[in-house]
Every structure is written in structure tokens, then in C-alpha cells.
Design goal:
Heparan-alpha-glucosaminide N-acetyltransferase catalytic domain-containing protein, 458 residues, transmembrane helix, 15 helices, membrane
């Protein structure tokens, strides 16, 4: 595929990109990776990564359209951790894993940094622009018309683009500075001692992990220790109407360019007047979720045995869970998606690591045929994830275009009332059923694209 082709292109030959953030391997690059081993199957894919990405996309579609009951499905209005709150950090986690699997081997093979940076930067710019197209105007109900005076700058795809750009830059430009013996995969790694094998991913790229820790600590200190303007509450300022994230985004973006319907806006006491759940300030914290996934990708590359990989994933899970408990019990930092609090970062990191383990064991270790068959729909979604997400966003915004007499009687309302009448469901249950049907519809679309070997990429 030439660089001059449109940002949405189709291919019948390849099995698709490694993922939405992958870089294609140049033909002149040899297969040896300085000791790094590839966990890929013969078709060039990693089933666990595809399935995990597909699950997050399916959940993302479902929670975007589900009703408000039961409450644990939708985003927590402020503090708390609901199903919808797990989706975004899990997808960012998988993005980090994909960055490792696509960029690290190329860097080790001495592919020019400028070439890698150009491809990553181009893809992130396209992804950011696609986010503006699908979510920039729709946040104020004007799609397909865009009033630039109220254009929402940040959104889901914009956050993904920025986080991927930052972590990819660390991978591309920060040198490898191994502590101790050089890391290697294959036979050499398997002969090492147990502890040295498990520490190999940490010791191979210490500057990367130091960068991730520095971002986590700096973001946490700024969020918890900075006084928000005109806020007289004691530190930390983490109330809906009193937090540094909202004031920072208002200063940088402007109130008219932020999300107009945050979950905390409906509070009777302490309502938030300007709060973007994908704002610039909290995107800094979201970058840490990508770093956590980056570590998972590195251990998949460097550790040769299933046991070592699972132990490392288990250590990541236990570490994130322990830090969550410490922050909650002793530092009193609540889990909050809107502010992307440190405890939210670690809690969702633990859940993401657990998700990967729960997929990896039956799929890669046991190689269960039944599980593999059951997960196939998520593979379809995972291999066309951005396409499915963008398609769902556009379709949901176009449904109100078709109506009978009045815009209130549009297709969306017709489908909802049909479910309520035919299945005798209450309104909230009908909305959940419609959201589930929406997920099934896009799974079928992804399956059709997969069967036809069409893989649309950014």
C-alpha cells in the first residue's frame, strides 16, 4: 500500500495490520530481532491481543447505547467503577501491547527512527482527525454540520491518538539501556534462572518504565496537590465543581470546545459546569494505561514459556491491585474515571492484565477448540476495531435523519418502541436489548469483512 492512498484503504492479500497502531514490516528487514522472539501464529497475528481488543470494542458499542439501568453498566457519575469505566483504559492497554509487538522488533532491527516516527505520526494525525469528524460536532447534536465555535476538540479517538503518539515516541527515541545481561529470547532466555527471566523485560528497557513511572507520579501529584482556581475546599480538590482537570481543560480548550453533557452535570449538589471525560489534563494519566500494556507486549516478546508470561502478568495484576488498595485505604484517593485518578489507573490496569490472562490461558496454553471457536467473533472485531467503532458512531448519528412526520419519530425511536411492544420490555431493558443487537450487528459486519478479507485501516 502506497503512502499516497487514502487513510481508509482495503486489502485482500494481507491478514490486516498488526493492529490500529502497527507499522508494516519493510521488506528489506530480516527476521532476526536481536534475541527478541515473536509470539505470533503462522498468520502473523496474536490471537490473545485480537480477542482482547475485540471484547473491548464490543463492550464499547454496548455501553455507548445501553440504558441507565442497571446502574453498574453505565459510567459512574463520579466516584466508583462500573462496566463502562473499564472499556477505555482496557483499549489503551491493548494499544500499548500492540505498540510493543509492532515497533520494538523494528527498532531492534535498526529501522530508521525517522521512518518509524513518520508512519506513527501520520497514523495518529489521521486518527485524531477521524475523531474530530465523528465526535467533534456530534457532541452538541449538530452532525453532520459543524459549528467550529462549539467543536469538541477531545474525544475517544483523539485520546487514543495522543496516548499512542506519546508512548510510541518513547519507544522510538529512547535508547535501549539494558541493566545487567542483555535480554534475549528463545533458547538463551529459557536457560536463565527463574528470577532473571522474569526481570528481563524490566531490565531490558529501564528508561521506558522510568518514563511511565515519572508520568504516573507527576500526573498524580498535579491532580492531588494543585489548588483549583476559586476553590476553597481542602486538598485534594477532586470534587465535580472543584478540580484542577476541569479548570485546566477550560483554560486550554475553552468551555465551548469541551464535552457538553458530563455525567456529573446532573448533580444537585456540587454539579460540574465544565468537565470533559477525555480532556487534555486527564489524557496525561491515560498515557500510563498504554505504558502498562507496553510492558505486557514486551514480556510476550521476551519470555519464551507460557509459565513465565503468566507469572509476569500475574505479578502485574497483583502489583496494580496492591497499589489500588494502598491508594484507596491509606491515601484516600477514590477511583474516578472523569479525573483518571491514580487509583483508577491501577485498578483498570489490574482488570486489563486479568482480562489478558483469562484469554491467554484457554486460547494459547490449553488451545481449547471450543474457546477458540467462541472467541472468533471477537477476533473479527479486533482486526477491524477502528472501522467498527467509527461505523457505529456514524450510524448512530445518522439514524435520526430518517423519521415519520416529526424528527421525534425517527428510526431509533421506532426500533426502541418495537422492542418494547414485541418483547414486552420496559424502556431501560429495551435500550439494553437494542444496544446488544447493535453490538451483534457490528460483529456480523466485522465477520463479513473478515470473510471477504477486507481490513480497513487508518
Amino acid at each position: 500500500m502506497s503512502e499516497s492512498e487514502p487513510f481508509i484503504a482495503q486489502s485482500r492479500e494481507a491478514s490486516s495490520d498488526e493492529d490500529e497502531s502497527a507499522i508494516m514490516l519493510p521488506s528489506h528487514v530480516e527476521s532476526d530481532v536481536h534475541g527478541l522472539r515473536s509470539p505470533r501464529r503462522a498468520n502473523g497475528r496474536i490471537p490473545t491481543v485480537d480477542v482482547a481488543r475485540g471484547i473491548t470494542i464490543a463492550l464499547m458499542i454496548f455501553v455507548n447505547h445501553a440504558g441507565d439501568r442497571p446502574k453498574w453498566i453505565q459510567h459512574a457519575k463520579w466516584n466508583g467503577l462500573h462496566l463502562a469505566d473499564l472499556v477505555m483504559p482496557a483499549f489503551l492497554y491493548i494499544c500499548g501491547t500492540s505498540i510493543a509487538l509492532s515497533l520494538v522488533p523494528l527498532k531492534e532491527r535498526l529501522v530508521p527512527r525517522q521512518e518509524l516516527a513518520t508512519k506513527v505520526g501520520t497514523r495518529c494525525l489521521k486518527l485524531f482527525g477521524l475523531g474530530l469528524l465523528t465526535q467533534g460536532g456530534s457532541s452538541v447534536g449538530q452532525f453532520p454540520y459543524f459549528d467550529l465555535s462549539t467543536l469538541r476538540v477531545m474525544g475517544v479517538l483523539q485520546r487514543i491518538a495522543l496516548c499512542v503518539a506519546v508512548v510510541s515516541s518513547v519507544v522510538i527515541f529512547m535508547p535501549r539501556l539494558s541493566l545487567g545481561r542483555p535480554a534475549s529470547g528463545g533458547r538463551n532466555t529459557s536457560k536463565r534462572g527463574f528470577l532473571s527471566r522474569l526481570l528481563a523485560p524490566v531490565l531490558a528497557y529501564p528508561l521506558w518504565w522510568a518514563s511511565g513511572i515519572a508520568v504516573f507520579v507527576t500526573f498524580s501529584l498535579l491532580l492531588l496537590l494543585l489548588h483549583a482556581p476559586r476553590c476553597h475546599e481542602p486538598l485534594p480538590n477532586i470534587m465535580p465543581d472543584c478540580n484542577i482537570a476541569g479548570y485546566f481543560d477550560k483554560a486550554v480548550l475553552g468551555e465551548d470546545h469541551m464535552f457538553s453533557h458530563p455525567t456529573c452535570h446532573s448533580f444537585k449538589s456540587h454539579p460540574c459546569y465544565f468537565m470533559d471525560p477525555e480532556g487534555v489534563f486527564t489524557t496525561t494519566g491515560a498515557t500510563v494505561s498504554v505504558f502498562l500494556g507496553l510492558y505486557t507486549g514486551i514480556l510476550l516478546l521476551m519470555l519464551p514459556s507460557h509459565g513465565d508470561r503468566l507469572i509476569s502478568l500475574g505479578a502485574q495484576f497483583c502489583g496494580c491491585l496492591s497499589l489500588t488498595l494502598f491508594l484507596g485505604l491509606f491515601v484516600r484517593v477514590p477511583i474516578n474515571k472523569n479525573l483518571y485518578t491514580p487509583s483508577y489507573i491501577t485498578a483498570t490496569g489490574a482488570v486489563s492484565a486479568l482480562l489478558v490472562m483469562c484469554i491467554y490461558i484457554p486460547l494459547e496454553v490449553w488451545q481449547s477448540r471450543r474457546f477458540t471457536w467462541a472467541m472468533q467473533p471477537f477476533v473479527w472485531l479486533g482486526m477491524n476495531s477502528i472501522t467498527v467503532f467509527v461505523g457505529d458512531e456514524l450510524l448512530s448519528q445518522m439514524l435520526p435523519w430518517v423519521f415519520w412526520g416529526k424528527m421525534e419519530y425517527n428510526l431509533r425511536r421506532v426500533f426502541l418502541e418495537a422492542l418494547m411492544g414485541i418483547a414486552f420490555l420496559p424502556k431501560e431493558a429495551a435500550r439494553n436489548a437494542l444496544a446488544a443487537l447493535d453490538s451483534c450487528f457490528w460483529t456480523a459486519v466485522a465477520g463479513w469483512l473478515h470473510q471477504r478479507k477486507y481490513f480497513l485501516k487508518v
